[in-house]
């Protein structure tokens, strides 16, 4: 079992310092959101710490982890940017001993989202959009929404990703559409 300090050392060693800064920002934002919306801040911190651990692995290695361990091979036919989330969840369990399914799912779905996202899924996914170092058109509006509605902010986040993909003529992973639809339909 790794303690937090050891996880920080291991994860930060596996990525450029700029990406590590992003991870620190996601931890900070995820803990704030957990406190604001009644999730466990310790779980939010752990999921945030691990969420991008595989982001800078060579794509072939990410593909190999998915192929060799019976993970979701559907991902292999989609954008390579989606792989690191599935790989991150698997490595968190196998190599870092994380057994908490809530934490593993929050890592696994932090990029794509999914239908019926848990509170922790939403928090990690949103923190990834709004951490202090993030700069993209519309991020300020998403930060503002995050003050009052986790769901509205996350919908705005998915909207911005989907618009970006449309503009680039790229395919959209079905789970992202399902996640957005589900949040809208169940909006209170
Ligand atoms: O790993 P990060 O850069 O912190 O953020 P992320 O894990 O949310 O990855 C987002 C990237 O994934 C972004 O550049 C868009 C790309 N992407 C490609 N296809 C899809 C997608 N993101 C979503 N949500 N859905 C897609 O279909
Ligand atoms: Fe990511
Ligand atoms: Fe994301
Ligand atoms: Fe991230």
From TrEMBL:
Cited SUPFAM superfamilies: HD-domain/PDEase-like
E.C. number(s) listed in UniProt: 3.6.1.41
Signal peptide (UniProt feature, chain positions): none
InterPro entries noted in UniProt: Diverse_Catalytic_Enzymes (IPR051094), HD/PDEase_dom (IPR003607), HD_domain (IPR006674), YqeK (IPR005249)
Keyword Iron: yes
Reaction equation(s) it catalyzes: P(1),P(4)-bis(5'-adenosyl) tetraphosphate + H2O = 2 ADP + 2 H(+)
Listed PROSITE patterns: HD
Keywords: Hydrolase, Iron, Metal-binding, Nucleotide-binding
Family matches, as Gene3D superfamilies: Hypothetical protein af1432
EC class (word): hydrolase
GO molecular function: bis(5'-nucleosyl)-tetraphosphatase (symmetrical) activity; metal ion binding; nucleotide binding
Superkingdom, taxonomy of origin: Bacteria
Domain HD: 19-133
Alphabetized NCBIfam families for the sequence: bis(5'-nucleosyl)-tetraphosphatase (symmetrical) YqeK
PANTHER family: BIS(5'-NUCLEOSYL)-TETRAPHOSPHATASE, SYMMETRICAL, SLR1885 PROTEIN
Protein name: bis(5'-nucleosyl)-tetraphosphatase (symmetrical)
Gene name for this UniProt entry: yqeK
């Amino acid at each position: 079992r790794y303690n937090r300090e050891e996880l920080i050392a291991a994860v930060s060693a596996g990525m450029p310092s700029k990406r590590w800064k992003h991870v620190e920002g996601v931890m900070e934002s995820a803990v704030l959101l957990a406190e604001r919306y009644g999730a466990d801040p310790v779980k939010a911190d752990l999921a945030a710490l691990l969420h991008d651990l595989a982001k800078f692995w060579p794509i072939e290695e990410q593909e190999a982890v998915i192929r060799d361990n019976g993970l979701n091979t559907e991902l292999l036919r989609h954008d390579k940017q989606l792989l690191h989330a599935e790989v991150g969840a698997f490595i968190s369990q196998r190599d870092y001993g994380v057994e908490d399914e809530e934490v593993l799912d929050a890592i696994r779905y932090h990029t794509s989202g999914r239908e019926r996202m848990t509170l922790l899924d939403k928090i990690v996914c949103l923190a990834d959009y709004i951490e202090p170092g993030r700069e993209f058109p519309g991020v300020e509006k998403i930060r503002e929404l995050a003050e009052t509605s986790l769901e509205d902010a996350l919908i705005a986040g998915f909207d911005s990703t989907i618009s970006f993909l449309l503009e680039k003529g790229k395919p959209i992973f079905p789970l992202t559409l399902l996640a957005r639809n589900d949040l809208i339909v169940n909006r209170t």
